[in-house]
Every structure is written in C-alpha cells, then in structure tokens.
Amino acid sequence: LVSSARNATPVQSINRRPSTLYFLIFVSHSSTSTMSSDASKKTTQPDGGDVIRTQTDLEDGSMEKLKHGEVDPALAFVSGEEVTFTPEEERKVLWKIDRAILPLLMWIYALQFADKTSLNYASLMGIREDTKLDPTSQQYSWASSIFYAGYLLWEFPTTYLLRRLPLGKYTSANITLWGIVLICHVFAFNYAGLLSVRFFLGALEATVTPAFVILTSAWYKQNEQAKRMGYWLSCNGVALLTLGPIAYGLSGAHNTVLATWKVLYLVLGIPTVVTGVYCWWFMPDNQTNAKFLNHREKSIAIERIRGNFQGIGSRQWKWNQFFEAFKDPRTYLYVLFSLLMNIPNGGITAFGSIIINSFGFNSRLSLLLNMPTGVVDITCKLLFTYLSDKFMDRSLFAFIAILIPMIGGIMMIVIPLSAQAALLVGYYLIGAAGASWCLVMVMISNNTLGYTKKATVNGLQILAYGAGNWIGPQTFRSNEAPNYHNGKLMVAIMYGLAGCTIVAIRVVNIWENKRRDKKAAEEPETVTAGTEFLDLTDFEQPNFRYVL
C-alpha cells in the first residue's frame, strides 16, 4: 500500500508483510481541495482546521482472518474505508460517548457498591438478631466473607463469558439477576439462608468490574482512561454518602410490617432490577452497535483509539495469550497488590459501622458517621486519576495514594479509644485506598494488550480482590471486640506491603521500556506499524511502551 497527499506529513511508516493490516495516517493543514480525489470519494472532508486522515486496507487473506475472528472486529468495520475527521469532530464524538456511557457506568457502580456493603449497614439494623447469628462466634464474619466465595468461584467463568458473549447483554443479565437476589434477602430467616443469598450475590457481582475495565479501555484513549475510571469507581463514595442517611432514616422506623433491614434490601434490589432491564436495551457491546452514534461517528470512535494497540474486543479466546499472561511478571505483581490491598478492605467493608460503634458512638449515629469516608473516597479517586492522566504516570500516584490509608491504620492502632475524633480521622483516611487500586486497574488496562490476555490478567487480579476480601473479615475476631487490635494492625501492614508492590511494578516497566528503546535503536527494521487492530499482546508489539 502506498498513499500520498499534497501538503501532508506522514506520522507513521509501514513495514509491509503478507496478510496483515496496512494503514497510513496524515495530519493535514490544508483545506478540502488539498485532499486527493480518491479520498474525497470515500469520505466527506470536514471544512477547515487540522484534519486526521486514516485509511485501512487488507491484503489478500486478511479478510479470511476477519471471518474467523483472528483479529479485532474494529477491522471489519473500518477495513477498506478512509476515515477523515477534525479534532473538533473527535471532541464531539467523545462528548457523545461520555454522555451516553459514563452516567450509566457511574450509576451501576454506585448500585453494586451499595448492594455489596448492605450487610455492613444491616448489621446495626437487626439482621444479626433476626437471622439468629451467634454473637460469640464468627458467623457474622462468615456471612460477610461468603460473598467473596461466590465472587471467587465465578470470576474466571464470567471472564471467559465476557469474552465470548456480547458484553452489554451479558452484563445487563448479571445486573438484573443480582437485583433479584437482593430482593431475596427479605426471605433469609436464618444463618443458612443469609449465607445462600450472600453467596449468589457475590457470584453475580463478579462481572461488573472486569466488564467496566474492558469497556473503558475499548472506548477511551490511554490518556483518558484514568479519569473515566476515576469517575465510575468514585461512585463507591457516592454509595457511602447515600446509603448512610437511608439506613439512618429506616433504622428510626418502628412497628413496621417488614423489619427495617428488609426494607433496605427492597430499596436496593428493585432499582437494580430496573437498571438491568434498561441496560439490556441501551448498553452497547462496542462501538459498532452503539445506538447513540451514526456510522461516521462509529468510525471516528474506533479510529481515535487506534493508538491504544487494543482494538474494541475480539470474541475469540486465544490460548497463547492466556498462557502469556502467566509468563508476564506484571501479572503476579498485579495479583499480589490486589490481594494485599483488599485484605484490609474486606475487614473495613464488613466491620466499618461496628468499628465506629466501638469508638463509643451509638448504633444509629455510627451509620451516619460512615459518610465522610465516601467524601475521602470520591476526592482521592478524582484527584489522583486526574493527576495520573495529566502526567501519564500511574504508579507514582498509586504509591502516594496507598500511603494515606496506611497512615490511617497506624492512627487507629496507636490512638486511645478516648480520643474519638482522632480515631475517626484515622478511619476516614482509609477511604483513600480505593484511589490506588483504581490506578493499578488503569495500569492493567493501559499495559496489558491482547483481548484474551487482558481478560485473563483482569480475572486473576479480581480473583485476588475476592480472596483479599474473603480473608479480611476474618482478621477482625469477635473475641477482640471492641478494640480489634489485630484487625487494625493488618490494615496498616497490608497497605504498606501493597505500596512496595507498586514500586516493583514501576521498576519492571522502566527496565522493559529501556530494553525496548535499546533494541529499537540497534534494530530499527524490527519496528512495525499497522498492527494496532490485530489483537496482538504487548509482548508481540515491539513499538509499544509501558505506561509507568
């Protein structure tokens, strides 16, 4: 393929090789008259301004690969088509994507966190007494942990299904089903019943985070992803701010037909079911079937993320990519970080209201005093993801963010119970931990290429997330109430070790980038272009550089 245009400067060159994708990008500073007549037949040239022009052609044999799903479906949509658009057009498309997708992700993520943490609030609203949990045993801890047993067992199957089934439809079905399970909490009359509904709730919620990571990486550029992930992940804090007053208001009701904790589960479950049904019709699987974009806007939405080297998501499961994930040292570091970071998270999520209650506050007030944690969570996620995108440095800000909850854990250990205000400050600082986890997920999104490899690494780190949250409640032993000294000690230690893991990830990425730079300087002929939509891994893309 050879292309040229008057007054145009090539941004990338191409090494031709059989049966692969070739393309050439031009940035033109001329009017429509400067474009070749050939190009004008293929697309309508925007008037004035800088113009981004791309052409995607397939050589003999490549279309056969498309039919068998060996490359990304983005190729099927844009192959043989020249896409010409201005930065202004791109901004308009981005605005439409944000308007259609972000509010949906934010709402769903707020719902799932409220649903996940509902037991924390219900624990002070009578669920322990009504289900006859033994206060001298670890039954409440196990009722909390069993959620993550379901999460762990279903994570890899759901990761595979996310790859094989339409992402929007499969995610919507899971949302609807977990809403139904929430409603079924009303019929939990004993310990066994509570364990059952919590187990299935965990299994069904295992889909949402990996689905949203995949969706964000498929719709947004690398330098846009952290901020967008920050938006929907910060809705954990929105859930904390909202659920506290709801639980507080319900807990003051007396002589109700249903126990107040049962009303809480209905308040959460019914909107979740409605949301799932809505998403079935309006959550796109990818750019090609997005109802809010016309054909031209879909082409722009695909072409604008070409530089991610990731495409929009092939449905073919590639075993070579699966096994490559286990050869990548980053995979083990991501998994280790997720495990270490979520052990304290599991304990705090299950025992947060009980810990505040142990500071000397009454049960109803303890429900409200959880709210500032949400403010810290929102603020830190939005701040650190913004800085991460601005400076394109994930690990630095992830490390800073993880130090904050470590300090909070230390404060809860060394400060006496008589200093209630200081203890609350220490507890609230733990809310910053989510910002660090958010940035590590962005690292996975940015640096793990190949759809199967990305799904595998995401699945493994979410497994570690579930394992950590399973272990966490067990570190808060009932025989240590009300101080829970060992539980608080684990909070500080685990966050400190998680910080060390982030440093290790940064060192690995710096070393690999230097190695690739050196090899490119020595063997420039090995640098290839035109492979962004071929569903290749980061190991197979020599011109890819890892985001720190």
TrEMBL record:
Superkingdom of the organism of origin: Eukaryota
Keyword list, A-Z: Membrane, Transmembrane, Transmembrane helix, Transport
Record SUPFAM superfamilies: MFS general substrate transporter
Protein localization: Membrane
Transmembrane segments: 175-193, 199-219, 231-251, 263-283, 332-359, 365-384, 396-419, 425-443, 455-472, 492-511
Domain Major facilitator superfamily (MFS) profile: from-to ranges: 101-516
Pfam families: MFS_1
GO molecular function ontology, one term from the record: transmembrane transporter activity
Signal sequence annotation: none
Similarity comment text for this entry: Belongs to the major facilitator superfamily. Allantoate permease family.
Full protein name: MFS allantoate transporter
